[in-house]
Amino acid sequence: MPKAKGKRSRPGSRPPRSIPKQPPILDDRRVCFSFEHLDVGGNPKFRLADCPLDFLRSLLTALRDLSTRTVSELLAEWGDVNQAHPIIFAETTEPGGFSQLDEQLAEHEAWQFKLDPKKKWRVHGLLIDDLFLVVWLDPSHKLYGKSK
User: Fold this and answer.
1) Are 143 and 87 within 8 A, CB to CB?
2) Where are the domains of the chain?
3) Residues 105-120: what's their mean pLDDT?
4) What is the CA radius of gyration of the chain?
5) Which candidate, 40, 18, 17, 22, places its Cα nearest to that of 131?
6) E strand or H helix that includes residue 136
């Protein structure tokens, strides 16, 4: 009997784990936020120390309010209210994207949203199913600044 072609695995070895790349699931689950991948000082444009107190207050208020919404509601409202949209890193000051993230996470679509309609304040991260991973805090909107 001919053997099947493909990669061979060693006895007892496990296949590599990967995070599936999928669009956000639009259902009735509420959005959760994670700061596990927050870049607190690695990129000088997005240092936590440079976030004014008003920005941090607005961030906490926004996350409290957004976490009451489902993924479907959030995506429906985001574009209009919070100027949220996917990030095309090639058009930003960070063409390498979230380079500090592992490869599996970096493959997911990056998003940004605005904290206050009267301010430039932005939050950048990844939306995976019902979880928004906050990566960069951007009180000066430096991701779309003029200098690359």
Assistant:
1) yes
2) 32-144
3) 89
4) 18
5) 22
6) strand 131-138
Q: Which long-range contacts (C-beta less than 8 Å, at least 24 apart) are formed by 125-128? A: 125/37, 126/37, 126/98, 126/101, 127/24, 127/71, 128/19, 128/24
Model pLDDT for residues 2-46, shown as the tens digit of each residue = 444 444 444 454 444 445 455 555 567 888 999 999 999 899 999
Q: What is the pLDDT of residue 20?
A: 47
Stated pTM of the model? 0.78
Q: How many CB atoms lie within 10 A of CB 92?
A: 18
Domain 32-144 sits in CATH at 3.30.2310
CA 99 to each of CA 17, 25, 80, 107, 140: distance values in angstroms, whole numbers, following the listed order? 20, 25, 29, 10, 20
